[in-house]
Amino acid sequence: MKKVGILGGTFNPPHIGHLIMANEVYHALQLDEVRFMPNAIAPHKKKEDESTNENRLQMVQLLIKPYKEFTVETIELERGGVSYTYDTMVALREREPDVEFYFIIGGDMIDTLHTWHHIDELVKIVQFVGIKRPGAKSESPYNIIMVEAPDIALSSTLIRERFATGGTLRFLLPPEVEAYIRKEGLYGAK
Ligand SMILES: Nc1ncnc2c1ncn2[C@@H]1O[C@H](COP(=O)(O)OP(=O)(O)OP(=O)(O)O)[C@@H](O)[C@H]1O
Ligand SMILES: O=C(O)c1ccc[n+]([C@@H]2O[C@H](COP(=O)([O-])O)[C@@H](O)[C@H]2O)c1
Prior knowledge:
alpha/beta; single chain; EC 2.7.7.18; Rossmann-like_a/b/a_fold; ATP-binding; Rossmann fold; 6-stranded parallel beta sheet
């Protein structure tokens, strides 16, 4: 069976933390592919109006462009509405019955997994894979495959703040993504 990792996120914007976690899981579990999956409306996140779905999709495409084992999954953007992972995994399993899916989450999501929509059903149909995150306990009562990876204390929030205040962005996200954000004038970029 083909083994596919799904890294779901808001990606507002995507950053090297996302690349590192995808790469670590790809190698640790010997996956065939990792799909970066931007959500339409995040279930638990405050809406940030600064970027559109199209902006987030384009930034993810720029982020992963050099890496052939990383692809984009647009199923949630196409479905629209609140992107419950349960609905997505039901649809993906139906569309691709020959694939074994691994849903990749960081420590903050591990800590709140019990609050996810239909979580008791969801854990039966998909294997979660966790990466610790500084500032999060990264602990769960559920059966999560934990992958050891370098701790990255980086978030989209920090990057939005750096754009707004004119702080350094070097090494935090690829230059192509930074250039796109400046061209589109997102996050109050100066
Ligand atoms: N530095 C990191 N270490 C571990 N996991 C991470 C890291 N950054 C993001 N993740 C995980 O990647 C997934 C998608 O994250 P998301 O796109 O929301 O980025 P974020 O940096 O958490 O954004 P924000 O700061 O806006 O909350 C989530 O499962 C999140 O836990
Ligand atoms: O289905 C849920 O109830 C649920 C609750 C919180 C987060 N998620 C998913 O987890 C992924 C990371 O979420 P976020 O908010 O960190 O971008 C993303 O794919 C979300 O759709 C899903």
